[in-house]
């Protein structure tokens, strides 16, 4: 019996020592700086990956590991953020976020400005927007906010007239259409492909870049004015995380001169860093 007790005591001591060594090793391996590394999942769409990749080393030094999660549909990143599958997303403007929150009874919030990306008109069939003929087809993004923005662009080009005082106009709000243009809403990602079938396509900037469209070939570009403020893109988080210190570090790392230069490089000068922009 005494021998059994000694063996049991020895086994317990050995197991305890093993646990202590294991825990010590795990703590040491968590970070070379001695602090636990935090992984932040950021939902993006398209070519923003190259911009975000440029800030990863800076955040890594602060114990923050950025994991980019690519999406292909505009609705997906907000769904993922709202459900907690990702921590932040960076792809949408303020107007889109507000509209998405309203439609889904959600309370996602902006925690930092990123860029403003003008919509542009592309064509394989005409060289100038003035060359549009009666009955020509125009493709535009079909999500509520970018559809409204595209229609306002057509109005600024004096191609249509919209009802006044409509916050988010739809094709049903066109009251004058002298050229009888056929306006076809499509998923934003499909607008570049539609160029084989339509006279002009109005394309979001990041979608255009992913489709290898050169911004310098656009035949008309949205003007940036004081009215453009709702179209500023943002980093979004859940409301409970709006003051999260780690996420604030992510915003701080993004809003730098080095990132502004990277944005200009990646988007070939067609996109503007918006955190210091004067509207």
UniProtKB/TrEMBL annotation:
SUPFAM superfamilies registered for this protein in UniProt: Periplasmic binding protein-like II
Subcellular location: Membrane
One Pfam family recorded for the sequence: Lipoprotein_9
Species of the source: Xylocopilactobacillus apis
Top-level taxonomic group: Bacteria
Annotated lipid attachment (S-diacylglycerol cysteine): 23
Protein name from the UniProt record: Lipoprotein
Stored Gene3D superfamilies: Periplasmic binding protein-like II
The keyword Protease is assigned to this record: no
Family: Belongs to the nlpA lipoprotein family.
Signal sequence, start to end: 1-21
InterPro entries in UniProt: Lipoprotein_NlpA
GO CC, one annotated term: membrane
Record keywords, A-Z: Lipoprotein, Membrane, Palmitate, Signal
């Amino acid at each position: 019996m005494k021998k059994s007790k000694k063996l049991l005591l020895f086994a317990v001591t050995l197991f305890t020592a093993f646990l202590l060594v294991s825990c010590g090793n795990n703590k040491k391996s968590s970070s070379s700086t001695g602090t636990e590394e935090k992984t932040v999942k950021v939902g993006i769409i398209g070519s923003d990956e190259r911009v975000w990749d440029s800030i990863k080393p800076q955040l890594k030094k602060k114990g923050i590991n950025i994991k980019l999660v690519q999406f292909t549909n505009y609705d997906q990143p907000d769904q993922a953020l709202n459900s907690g599958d990702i921590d932040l997303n960076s792809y949408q403007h303020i107007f889109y976020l507000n509209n998405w929150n309203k439609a889904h009874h959600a309370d996602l919030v902006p925690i930092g400005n990123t860029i403003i990306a003008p919509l542009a008109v592309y064509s394989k069939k005409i060289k100038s927007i003035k060359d549009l003929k009666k009955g020509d087809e125009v493709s535009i993004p079909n999500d509520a906010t970018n559809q409204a923005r595209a229609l306002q662009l057509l109005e600024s080009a004096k191609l249509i007239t919209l009802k006044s005082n409509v916050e988010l106009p739809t094709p049903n709000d066109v009251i004058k259409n002298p050229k009888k243009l056929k306006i076809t809403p499509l998923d934003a990602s499909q607008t570049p492909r539609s160029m084989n079938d339509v006279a002009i396509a109005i394309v979001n900037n990041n979608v255009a870049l992913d489709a290898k469209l050169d911004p310098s070939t656009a035949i008309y570009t949205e003007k940036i004015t004081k009215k453009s403020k709702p179209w500023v893109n943002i980093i979004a988080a859940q409301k409970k995380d709006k003051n999260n210190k780690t996420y604030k570090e992510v915003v701080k790392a993004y809003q730098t001169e080095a990132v502004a230069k990277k944005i200009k490089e990646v988007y070939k000068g067609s996109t503007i860093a918006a955190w210091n922009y004067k509207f």
